[in-house]
Amino acid sequence: MPDRAWRNDAVAKVTGAARYTDDLKLPGLLHAVPVYSNFVHARIRTIRTGAAEAAEGVIRILTARDIPGANRHGQIRKDMPVLADDKIRYHGDVIAIVVARTRVQAVAAAALVEVVAEPLPAVLDPEEALRPDAVPVHEQHGSNLIHTHRVRRGDIERGFGESDFILEHDFQTQHVEHAYLETEAAVCLPRPDGVMEVRGSMQHPFSTRRFVAGTLGEPLANVEVVGTPLGGGFGGKDDTAALVCARAALAARLLGRPVKMTYDREWSMRESYKRHPYRVRYRMGVRRDGIIRAVHCRIVADGGAYCSVTPWVTWRSTVQCCGPYTVENVHCDTLGVYTNNVFTGAMRGFGSPQMNFVVEQMVEIAAEKLGMDAVEFRRLNMVQQDSLTITGQKLNQHRVAMGEALDRVREASSFEEKRKRCSHGSDEEEELYGIGLAMSYRGVSLGAEGADFTAATVNAQADGSILLDVGVHENGQGAESAMILVLARELGVRPDRIRLQRSSTATIPDSGTTVASRGTIMGGGAVVQAARELKRKIATTLSQRLGCPMEEIRFEGEAVHGRGQALPFAEAMAEMYKARVFPFAFGMFRAPEVSWDEETGQGDAYFTWVYGCQAVELTVNRRTGKVTLLGMTAAHDVGRAVNRPMVLGQFYGGMAMGAGYALQEEVRMEEGKIRNTNFHTYRILKADQLPDMQAVIIENPDPLSPSGAKSIGEPVNEIMAPAIANAIYNATGIRHFRIPILNPLSSESSAEDPPADRKEPS
Asked: Residue 475: what pLDDT?
């Protein structure tokens, strides 16, 4: 393939021919909308539906008592109701569903549903929620603690005792909205064969199938979730989207008619989960020679009203609590906490953006305290080939490219030269200039968070066309194109020979969720394994025809090559059918084994890692505080770039998203209620606020990945915020410990920052 953009769905999306969920129309289609209350925490006494039922066009009002199956669902802990029954636990809980002939009628009737409830005290601060006398969000759990993760390595007291300086700071991050363009939507069709067919704006068809089947009280085989073009997810189309599908399916099953449920933006932002806000106290001990001897940190994550995937998100934060640095003595405790705030879950970066914001500022604070260059301080402490991570994992099964990423960014951004121009809070300049960088390593795929294996099938037809089916879902990021390109390369054929089938939970085994940047490495791995099995079948069948042992047969240039002769691919497939051998293969990629000790936080957390570094240059207006981004540079080791132009798109999108996280994005909460529930009040960076961006693709094909690819979707998002914070410090001389950095000229917008301990050697 030439190095150009190639997407199998490009024409349909550019021309508007692609049909998203809300575009779907079916005969007899009914419309459903959610009903909310104005409570944040309350015990439900009764739900009065009489006025709504009498409204024009209303077919039925559904409440929790209408659910034939289970009302509680969740990826880890089943504590999330399809429809609230006993209590309202946050302002986004859905109380009922109104089903009407038209959407306008359903919306009008929803306002007539009355919820009678006993208000309960709301617990909104995660630290207060941990107190023994705190109001419980879920009485049955005994406390508001969702879970605790830990890392225990070395002797923390000895480590601090060997340190010449001990630095301690508090950090705080915010709730963040995913801000996908397409809101949650579902269309559910009860088929004559008894199967509930579900189409929806969701990232994870198999998770959705579990939610729907559980709600209906039916086996998984009675629910088929069909892939539908998705208008953005960024991790946000999991639990909430699955619940929307379950509600629409419930209405469709009870009424025997197709039902559509499409969310308004306000409903979406009110109900959907957000990125976890963190509170972190971080203590670092360093020697005078620049070696980090000890890290002690306490991380508190606000999980909101439901568990969702809080234990998985915060596990990653725990594993990577020291960033890409080797530290012999580590004591980390991470607590996920229930509150009555909007619940929190997966978002691009999955627990890494919060901790990288902390770590990459702490290393610069330490370097400045020592009078050492921050880049050299990083180089002195960063992981290298054969290093041991803080969880005791030896990095020896792939190339550790941390130094390469750092050097490529320094070179591409002219970092050393520009750093000399930093204003450092000068009183003489109107525009204060700063440049900063940050780096990270990121564990690839699920790691010890869960079982990690994926399936694919390759089905070559008699005319040489090929059907491909993969168990990972296309979320709009180009995963389908990547899978096609992986197969085309493996079989030596053009990508336009391959048709990726519309995904369905009925045609491929459950291959897990499209999260943790696992789409290309896991899905592509399964495609490679299926292709290799197909090639083995073809070679075995056609070796005599090609006059050579099967081991000598090659697949390239649109042909199957033997000794001195070749069959065009289409002719070769025709020969397979003549031989009565189906050119069909099933492939499965199992991620290499990992290990984890929950008590000590030790083990091989991930089977491979992505190494990256990013820099940003900016100015801060000394009078107004306006931040102007001048340029961004990123370098990441992606393993092998399957589709280079699409990889570049991931770079640029990740940098843009990370910049908004740093500077202005924040879900504003007042007494447990979200106040900015649309894009005119939720501030996303505009195109004219973004600078030129340059991406450096580092390719070190990973030996543990069948395709050689690793990942890039999340790593580029997770270190833009600390790079910006460091650049603002170099411009203004003001260090910010809280994001978003709304006022770069004042440290008052930062979290409370206790004075640093200073210890001189005795």
From this structure: 77
